[in-house]
Structures are given as structure tokens and as C-alpha cells.
Write a structure and sequence with these properties.
single chain, about 425 residues, alpha+beta, five-stranded mixed β-sheet, three-stranded antiparallel β-sheet, 11 helices, about 25% helix, about 25% strand, flat
């Protein structure tokens, strides 16, 4: 997270903007700074065809809502857009969902300092207030536009699913409004305390089908490995056996004789085989004979480490890493009538992916920009790291997150700790 902390977070604060309306429809964007959201205008798609807004309403009454977090089976691709749809009073049957590209200014999670990062079950908690507000503001803009069309007060209007209704009974669909709406000077202010009450929910808390399930069951879902570009080459990395070990010698000449192998590249952490096909890279990787440099982890084994870990954890004089500190533990121990010691051991839990780790990248001829398609939980981090490799601005790297397939698999490497607790006098 060190690279992430270097983001200029002041960039996440956006001053007054407008939104653009036209025959193609209306698009609403939102930026987040802390827990304060501001709906701003966008044209829907910029010159790079990157969707940069949360809600797009088209004249045919269809609505697209962007999902800013990574879908990895936890249902967040449904849950977050559902919040927006609830508060804008959208007809869910008319809604389609798209995964947002890497753009922390628009899609950052306040819980992670405004970056796009999906972890620790903090997506709903982080996006809840901003998405409620962008939904409520979108609804209010539609009401105002319809009221102006009719020459009535906005206070005389209400909404039904994807429709603005006047007290006289006349109504307009969101799509009809999107076709004629004029852009306001600024987005309307909505009092957070005045947004929809939980008792009036139509969507949240109800049995709603997940939007990712149909494609996952009929085979059309696109994961990272599914993405294809014309003229692709493939790469496979033979990683070092332990952390910080580097390749010292590689039988490059022999591997290059294999049909389809284009290049053999030594990296700080392994050796990459570049080939015309997946098969050629796998064959080349299997043929590698690599001599590795010495590394601090050469002699480490989890079998011996468990004993060392328990000794360190049980030693009151050992200095650990403080995660959270409350009260005076030392004083509590010293003044305790009884001190009890417990030892726990467990195996490492390998958070494994069901598909091979992969990414597809298209780098510009000058090497200063790129597009990346990857199943990633951290689009912002991928953008930062890739831009550092290319020695370019993060803005020149477009990252398009794909669906993620993960599973937790228990490996054999144990972890251990001890705990002491005291009983007051």
C-alpha cells in the first residue's frame, strides 16, 4: 500500500461541474472525497471510450449503472448498483450493470483513501453514503427537468419506478426526460436526512437476482483469461523459489530453439518466456534450467518456524508489531491476580484464484501508454505499478477489471501465536 499512499488525494476533490444532456441520454458522474459525494456532469464516454460516470439513462429508457468494486463471487456487482437504483427510483428490470474502469477520482472507495480497492468486506460500508447520494441527486435532476417541461413546481412531482409523476396524473419516463433535459448550472443539493427511508425500499433488502449469475451459468462470463486481442503473444513466468532470489544463469540458447518461443527475459524475481502460443510458453518454461542467487529465505521452513514463532510470541520482552493499542497491558499484567497463557497454531490459509494469475496488456508503440485487462481487486494499484514500469503518468494507463474467480485453499505452512490474559485482583 506504500505506492497507493503516494496518490495526490487532493485530486479527489472536484469543484463545481455541470452535466450534459442530449438526445443520446443523460450521464451522471460522482466523485468522492472522504465521505462527501458530489454529483457532477460527464458526457458518458470520453475520447478513449472509457465510461467515466455512474449512471447513464438512454432515450429508450434503459439505464446503465457502473459497479466500482471487484466482483469475485460476493455479489457486490449487484449490491452497489442496487443502492443507486433504489435511491434514484429506477426500474431494476431496465438496468444493466458494467464494471467501472480504473478511475479513482470517480470510483474510489473512501474507506481506502479514495482508491479502487476491493478487500475486507468494506465495499458496501465505503460506498453506501456516496451511492445513496448519487442516486438521490440523479432522481432530483429528473424531477426538476420534468417539472420545467410541464411548467409546474418540482415539489408537486414524485417518482415511480423509472418515471416522474405529477400530482395531476401525467407522467414521463426517465428515458423520455433524458431525451430533452437541459443541463442545470449545478447538481441539486439533497439533504442526506431527507433521502428515501428504509421503510420505503423497493429493491434493497428484497430477493433480487444477482446480475453476474446468468453469464456465469451460460458460459458467457468474461474472466481475465478470456480476453483476446488480435496479434497477441503470450508469456509465462518461472518465478524464483524463494523471495528475493534472482536468476544468475539461464539456458536461454536452448530454450530459444523451441518452436514458437520468441524471447527469454530475466526478471528480478524470475524468468519470463514469450511465445506465439500458450503451449510454446509452457514448453519453454518446462525446459528452463535456472541457477538462482542466494536469498534470506533459502533456509526457511515452516516446520521449524513454528517453534521459533511460539518462543517469540510467549516472550514478554519480545517486541512485536502493534496492530491496535488500548489501555495499559503491562500494568494490567503486573497487577493481575492470575495470568493465564495460551498457545494457538494454525495453517496458512492460501487465498487462491481458480483461474491462473493473468493479465492482458496492449502497450502503445512509444511505450508511454497502455491498456490492461485483468481480474484484479486493486485497479488503482495496477494502474500505479504499470505506470511506474512504463515510466509514465498513471493517467496514461487504462485498466479494465474483469470478473474474478477465487477460492480459499488451506496450504501446509503453519502460523502460530500465543496469548496471555490476566484476571484483575
Amino acid at each position: 500500500m506504500n505506492e497507493v499512499s503516494k496518490i495526490d488525494l487532493h485530486e479527489l476533490t472536484v469543484s463545481r461541474r455541470t452535466f450534459v444532456g442530449g438526445a443520446a441520454g443523460l450521464t451522471f458522474a460522482m466523485t468522492v472525497s472522504g465521505l462527501v459525494s458530489e454529483a457532477v456532469a460527464a458526457t458518458g464516454r470520453d475520447g478513449d471510450n472509457t465510461v467515466n460516470a455512474y449512471v447513464t439513462i438512454r432515450a429508450d429508457n434503459t439505464i446503465t449503472i457502473m459497479s466500482p468494486a471487484a466482483e469475485m463471487g460476493q455479489g457486490i456487482m449487484t449490491c452497489l448498483p442496487l443502492i443507486v437504483a433504489e435511491y434514484m427510483d429506477a426500474d431494476w428490470d431496465k438496468v444493466s450493470v458494467e464494471t467501472a474502469p480504473a478511475n479513482h477520482k470517480l470510483y474510489g472507495n473512501p474507506k481506502f483513501g479514495g482508491i479502487q480497492y476491493t478487500v475486507a468486506s468494506l465495499s458496501v460500508m465505503g460506498y453506501w453514503d456516496p451511492l445513496r447520494m448519487v442516486g438521490a441527486q440523479t432522481r432530483q435532476v429528473l424531477i426538476i427537468a420534468a417539472a420545467e417541461k410541464w411548467g409546474v413546481a418540482a415539489s408537486e412531482c414524485s417518482t415511480e419506478p423509472s418515471r416522474v409523476v405529477h400530482k395531476s396524473g401525467k407522467s414521463l419516463t426517465y428515458g423520455e426526460i433524458a431525451a430533452f433535459a437541459k443541463p442545470p448550472a449545478e447538481m441539486p443539493k439533497v439533504d442526506p436526512s431527507a433521502v428515501k427511508n428504509e421503510s420505503n425500499y423497493r429493491l434493497l433488502g428484497k430477493d433480487t437476482g444477482r446480475v453476474d449469475v446468468p453469464s456465469k451459468t451460460n458460459g458467457s462470463a468474461q474472466y481475465g483469461m478470456d480476453f483476446q486481442i488480435d496479434g497477441m503473444v503470450y508469456a509465462s513466468i518461472h518465478r524464483s523459489p524463494v523471495s528475493k532470489a534472482k536468476p544468475v544463469s539461464v539456458n536461454e540458447a536452448e530454450v530459444m530453439k523451441i518452436k514458437g518461443v520468441k524471447r527469454v527475459i530475466s526478471l528480478p524475481y524470475g524468468v519470463a518466456i514469450i511465445g506465439d502460443t500458450v503451449e510454446s510458453t509452457k514448453t519453454g518454461r518446462a525446459a528452463l534450467d535456472v541457477k538462482w542467487s542466494e536469498a534470506p529465505g533459502d533456509t526457511f521452513t515452516s516446520q521449524t518456524a513454528i517453534g521459533d514463532d511460539l518462543k517469540i510470541a510467549a516472550d514478554p520482552a519480545s517486541k512485536g508489531v502493534t496492530w491496535k493499542s488500548e489501555g495499559d497491558v503491562a500494568a494490567g499484567m503486573a497487577g493481575a491476580a492470575t495470568v493465564k497463557t495460551f498457545e494457538y497454531t494454525s495453517e496458512h490459509n492460501y487465498h487462491a484464484q481458480m483461474e491462473p494469475m493473468n493479465a492482458t496488456a496492449r502497450v502503445s508503440p512509444d511505450g508511454k501508454s497502455a491498456e490492461i485487462w485483468a481480474s484484479t481487486q486493486g485497479p488503482t494499484i495496477a494502474q500505479l505499478v504499470s505506470s511506474k514500469v512504463l515510466k509514465t503518468s498513471p493517467a496514461n494507463v487504462k485498466v479494465y477489471p474483469q470478473l474474478i474467480a477465487v477460492a480459499s485453499v488451506v496450504a501446509r505452512s503453519p502460523i502460530s501465536w500465543s496469548m496471555r490474559c490476566c484476571c484483575p485482583r
